[in-house]
Write a structure and sequence with these properties.
Largest sheet: 5 strands, antiparallel
Number of strands: 15
Shape: elongated
Number of helices: 8
Distance between the termini: 114 Å
């Protein structure tokens, strides 16, 4: 304890005697330290941004709010490109048959189109059925069937897909995707689920010759009792309105009740829409049949206006009625030859290999540009920081050596002198570059004149 007291006293005495000669630690300016810290933080942020752009090419969970909002912005489904999925070839198979397709008439024979429902409807609870393409290949209409397992009922919607223009007719249909369909269906059935095992479907029958109207048959029935009723419906694309042709059913019932006293409402009968008439495209042709348990009885072939305003009897016999076939569909036409498939596979492999090289080169160039931009940014930040610190030290030095009135004047004089020296240095660099360019230009001219003389001499010889 006593030695500690003596030590303190000795140190105090030494300070009093030689205090002005003992070097004190230099105190750094707090503003310079703060500016340097902020500068290092900004450089670190630029580095993190560079690393993120370098390794995170695709959107991920490590995004800022602005990046997320940009990626999640709503897109136009009609303009979105859909890549056709490729079926991978198994390693143990040399040849996998690839189907070929062709375009055929949809309503052939007239009145034959029907919805084919498979077992997947009851598992997935939705199925897209065969579509029909308009005569001008501008749109495709297809039914979407829904299954409700709680009561075993079925409903249906009819959607439109606008086909792409800059493609062949076959590729237009092959590349049609449901993501490009119009959001609202053009026709829809009742979706009530109060009746058990009731099915309601919409089946396209055919387009009119000009493609402005679509004939559809709406079927209502019960899976345990059969079809109850088929009603023809015409949709007009020009006016975006549908017309129910229920009047033709009423006309058939009235005709047979007046002619033979038969009340068809007490019988099992139905109509079959055949298509648009060839003689008059504005009329729809339907055939009516009564069920007897044996051979169905023909109730005549009838025609009705596309707006359902007037109906008439065409024939009571099974004579041929001219019905137009306007719409199209795709059917399988066979398989691609194995030799063609093998050649295409080799060609695709070469293309994929070349594309990988191109992508690799693009990625390399992208990284090079990112690094170049990053280094240029850091260099610019360092230069700006040095200029800021230099300017700050100049201001501080002037403030410590001059009066308040002379500070601004002297600062401007020093900055003007620094700018003059900087411009002189740049001018010297430009003059040096110009001299170098002139030297190279004269050298090239001398070399070209010498080559000309040598060629002339060789010609003289």
């Amino acid at each position: 304890m006593l030695y500690a007291v003596f030590g303190v006293i000795a140190a105090f005495c030494a300070f009093i005697q030689w205090g002005d000669q003992i070097p004190l630690p230099q105190q750094k300016d707090i503003n310079i330290k703060e500016a340097k810290y902020i500068h290092e933080v900004n450089k670190q942020e630029e580095k993190e941004k560079f690393e993120r752009n370098k390794y995170d090419k695709h959107p991920s969970g490590f995004m800022t709010v602005e990046e997320y909002e940009l990626v999640s912005a709503p897109k136009d489904r009609m303009k979105e490109e859909i890549e056709i999925p490729k079926i991978p070839t198994p390693a143990d198979m040399v040849y996998v048959p690839q189907p070929t397709y062709k375009i055929v008439r949809y309503n052939n024979p007239p009145g034959s189109p029907e919805i084919s429902i498979n077992k997947t409807l009851y598992q997935r609870r939705q199925q897209n059925a065969q579509g029909i393409v308009s005569p001008d290949f501008t749109k495709l209409v297809y039914p979407s069937v829904y299954y409700y397992p709680e009561n075993g009922s079925t409903a249906c919607d009819l959607f439109v897909i606008n086909l792409e223009e800059a493609k062949s007719n076959l590729n237009k249909i092959l590349t049609a995707n449901v993501i490009h369909r119009l959001s609202e269906p053009i026709l829809t059935t009742d979706k009530k689920i109060d009746n058990y095992y009731t099915f309601r479907t919409l089946t396209p029958v055919d387009f009119s010759s000009d493609g402005t109207k679509l004939l559809v048959k709406e079927k209502i029935g019960n899976t345990k009792d059969g079809i109850w009723k088929t009603t023809p419906v015409v949709y007009d694309f020009s006016n975006s309105v549908s017309y129910s042709l229920q009047e033709v059913r009423d006309a058939i019932v009235y005709y047979w009740k007046e002619k033979n006293g038969i009340n068809l409402d007490d019988k099992r009968w139905d109509v079959y829409p055949l298509g648009f008439s060839s003689d008059n495209p504005d009329w729809v042709v339907v055939n009516a049949l009564a069920y007897t348990g044996d051979v169905p009885v023909n109730l005549g072939t009838w025609a009705i206006n596309s707006k359902g305003e007037q109906s008439r009897l065409v024939s009571l016999k099974n004579s041929s009625v001219q019905v137009s076939m306007n719409g199209f569909k795709l059917v399988k036409d066979g398989v691609v030859s194995p030799s063609i498939t093998e050649q295409e596979e080799k060609q695709l492999k070469r293309i994929e290999k070349e594309n990988k090289k191109i992508e690799k080169q693009k990625e390399k160039e992208r990284l090079k540009e990112l690094e170049k931009s990053y280094k240029a940014k850091i260099k610019q930040m360092d230069e700006e920081f040095k200029e800021t610190q230099k300017d700050y030290k100049l201001r501080k030095r002037i403030q410590g050596s001059t009066s308040d009135d002379e500070i601004l004047t002297k600062y401007k004089e020093i900055k003007a002198e620094q700018e003059r020296k900087k411009q002189e240095k740049l001018q010297k660099l430009k003059e040096k570059e110009l001299k170098e360019l002139e030297k190279q230009k004269s050298k090239q001219e001398n070399q070209s004149s010498g080559d000309t003389e040598n060629s002339n001499n060789s010609d003289n010889l």
